[in-house]
# Entry
Amino acid sequence: MQVSGEQKFKRVWFITGAARGIGAKIAEAAIADGNAVVAAGRNVEALISQYGDNPAVLPVKLDVTDQEAARAAVEKAVLHFGKIDVVVNNAGFGLLGAVEESDDADVRRMYDTNVFGLLNVVRAALPVMRARRSGHVINVSSIGGFRASAGFGVYCSTKFAVEGITEALNAELAPLGIHATVIEPGYFRTDFLDASSLVVAPNVIADYAETSGATRTRAGGLNRQQPGDPAKLAAAVVKLVDSSKPPVRLPLGKDTLAAIEQKIAFVTSETDAWRELASSTGFDA
# Structure
């Protein structure tokens, strides 16, 4: 049933992975700000339990890896609320292990969700936004989307892909009045390091004990001790959407800011050190 025209919402948000973690916090903040939320996730019963019978929330079943399901979820959202103003691509999971340790099936499943699933939702939602010449696509990346680290290499590669996709989307959509932003959370106190969100590679290679192995150990100790407050992250995302000139990238967390500064300094130093060889590859004038 379509929501009565008497019910006015600031915007309509479509959020994937909305049953828990960052997705749920963003949904809660959006609702508190006077928005309607299409809460999408694999387990619709969990969504109904999470949000109850709130008229500002439409729970929809969505496996983002299913392209037709993404289109159906968007159609249901538009039928119910009449539009979609904001898409938050939050659904995803991690893989902890050295690149060589990472199983092919786990890698492909992660890419299906983190990258191809995101693309399914983007392709489903953009026709709605283009028709209205307005909207905002927010793709959730990570501190690992800007700087890869030992032990999270393949996971970081999915977030590098999300960063590239979003940067291109921003250029393609800007003339149409639509914004695209990638947010880069650092370590926030959610269930990301739990088994529900993180696959740990079962294959352990002793040669990586000091690199990826050390990351495995640190990740276990960091779980539920992360420095970032997910409620504050959610509030920041609401502020982002309210901005008339949102950024292409929004780092979230002091750890992300530090990682970006370190990466930029490293790239600048390495580029300077190899500048002569790098510039020697053109045809002679």
User: Anything to note?
Assistant: Residues 1-6 have pLDDT under 50 and may be disordered. The chain is about 45% helix and 15% strand. Residues 104-132 form the longest helix (29 residues). The two ends are 69 Å apart (CA to CA).
